[in-house]
Design goal:
This protein is of the alpha+beta class. Helix content is about 35%, strand content about 15%. α3 packs antiparallel against α8 and α3 packs across α9. Bound molecules: 2-oxoglutaric acid and fe (ii) ion. Fe (ii) ion binds near residues 177, 266 and 270.
C-alpha cells in the first residue's frame, strides 16, 4: 500500500527527470521500468542525447584543431604528452606536494580517493593551476569533449590503490559512466605504469553505433534488478569478451609519464586498470557533466572557483547530515595530509564500510 502511494506521488517527478541527466534505474522507477525499456525508453534517451551532443559539438568545433577533432571523433579521447612547459609543470608539482590544506577521502572498494576542492583558499596556494585553466588546449578539449561550452569541476585527486583491506575497486570493471556523452580529464602529476592502476579506454567506444544502441537497450532491461550496484545506478558494465560483438577493440592502456593530459568522453567504455601492488596516482582531475538535454541549469556561467566552493559546500552539507545522525558522510575530512602522502591508516587497516554507488560522479555535483 505504502509503495503504491509512493509510486503515485513520485511518478510526476520521475517523468520530469527523463528530461535531465538522471540515470538511476533503481531510484527512478520510470527510468528503471522494464516494460518502458522494452518499448525503447532508454534507447530513445540515449539516441536523443547523442544527437544533441553531436549538434552542440559542431558549434564548438572551432575550439580545437582539425587533427584533434578527427582524433577525438574517431577514438573518444585525446592524449597530450608534455602538456605544460617544464618550468610550469615543476611549479605545479611543487605547489601540490606542499599543499596541506583540508581535503577529503572516500573509499571505492579497497581504493582510497583523495580530493582537494579548488575553492579560492586552495587556489591561492596552488596558483600554478591557472596555467592549466588558462590553457586554450585544456579549455577547448574539455568543452568539445563534454559538448558544453562550460567550466568543468576540477580537483586535485589522488588514487591510492590497495590502500586498505576491502572488496575490489568497482571502477576496475570496464564501464560507461552514464547514458550520454560526458567528459573527464586527467593531467597526471605522477608517472603512471602499465601495472600500477592506469586509466584504460576502449578506442571508439564513445560512438553510438547500431550495435552499441542495441547493447544499451538489452542492458537497460535487467538494470533495475542487477546484482551490481553501479549498473542499477545507470553506469553499465561490459565484459571485455563482449567488445568484439560490438566491433570494438580491447582497451588501450594509458601508461604515460607525468605531465600527460588525457581528455575522454566517458560514455566510452573505460576503467581503472589493474594495480599489481599498492600504488599512488596523483592528477589534476576535471569532470564536466551538464544535462544532456536543453536545460537552464546547464547555462549557469560557473567559474572554476565557484564550482570548487560548491564541492566544499556539498561536503559540509554531508557533515551536517552526519552530525544530525541522518546519514554517514562517506567523504571524510583530513587535515595536514598531502595529495602525495601514503594512506593515513597504513595499508593494514580495514576500509571504512563502502556503500555502493557512483562515488566518482558525486550526484550532488552532476549539473
Ligand atoms: O581513475 C580512473 O582511471 C578511471 C576511473 C573512472 O572510471 C572514472 O573516473 O570515471
Ligand atoms: Fe568511470
Amino acid at each position: 500500500m505504502f509503495l503504491q502511494v509512493r509510486r503515485a506521488a513520485m511518478t510526476p517527478l520521475w517523468v520530469a527527470q527523463l528530461a535531465t541527466g538522471a540515470k538511476s534505474f533503481e531510484h527512478n522507477l520510470v527510468i528503471g521500468s522494464r516494460r518502458l525499456n522494452e518499448w525503447g525508453l532508454h534507447a530513445a534517451r540515449v539516441g536523443l542525447a547523442h544527437r544533441l551532443a553531436s549538434a552542440r559539438r559542431r558549434t564548438l568545433a572551432r575550439l580545437i584543431s582539425a587533427p584533434d577533432r578527427q582524433a577525438f571523433d574517431r577514438d573518444g579521447f585525446i592524449v597530450r604528452r608534455d602538456f605544460l612547459p617544464p618550468d610550469q609543470f615543476a611549479a605545479l608539482l611543487a605547489q601540490v606536494k606542499a599543499y596541506r590544506g583540508p581535503l577529503r577521502e572516500i573509499t571505492e572498494g579497497d581504493t582510497i580517493m583523495r580530493k582537494v576542492a579548488l575553492d579560492r583558499a586552495a587556489l591561492a596556494e596552488l596558483p600554478a593551476l591557472y596555467w592549466v585553466f588558462r590553457s586554450r588546449d585544456w579549455q577547448g578539449l574539455v568543452r568539445y569533449a563534454g559538448s558544453r561550452n562550460a567550466e568543468p569541476v576540477v580537483w586535485v585527486q589522488s588514487i591510492l590503490r590497495h590502500a586498505c583491506a576491502g572488496p575490489s575497486d568497482p571502477q576496475t570493471k570496464l564501464h560507461a559512466d552514464t547514458f550520454h556523452p560526458t567528459v573527464k580529464a586527467w593531467l597526471f602529476l605522477t608517472d603512471v605504469a602499465e601495472d600500477a592502476g592506469p586509466f584504460i579506454y576502449v578506442p571508439g567506444s564513445h560512438r553510438l553505433t547500431a550495435e552499441r544502441l542495441s547493447w544499451e537497450r538489452q542492458a537497460s532491461l535487467g538494470a533495475r534488478q542487477s546484482s551490481n550496484a553501479q549498473i542499477r545506478q545507470g553506469s553499465f558494465r561490459i565484459d571485455p569478451a563482449e567488445l568484439a560483438a560490438l566491433r570494438l577493440p580491447q582497451p588501450r592502456i594509458f601508461a604515460v609519464p607525468a605531465n600527460t593530459l588525457v581528455v575522454a568522453d566517458t560514455f566510452g567504455f573505460h576503467a581503472r586498470g589493474p594495480s599489481v601492488r599498492p600504488s599512488l596516482r596523483v592528477e589534476i582531475w576535471a569532470y564536466g557533466r551538464r544535462s544532456p538535454f536543453p536545460s537552464f541549469a546547464a547555462l549557469v556561467p560557473w567559474t572554476a572557483a565557484g564550482l570548487g566552493r560548491r564541492s566544499v559546500l556539498s561536503w559540509k552539507f554531508g557533515d551536517l547530515l552526519e552530525t544530525a545522525g541522518l546519514k554517514t558522510n562517506r567523504w571524510k575530512k583530513r587535515i595536514g595530509v598531502s595529495a602525495f602522502d601514503p594512506p593515513s591508516g597504513g595499508l593494514a587497516g580495514a576500509c571504512p564500510t563502502s556503500v555502493p554507488g557512483d562515488a566518482v560522479a558525486d550526484r550532488s555535483l552532476a549539473l
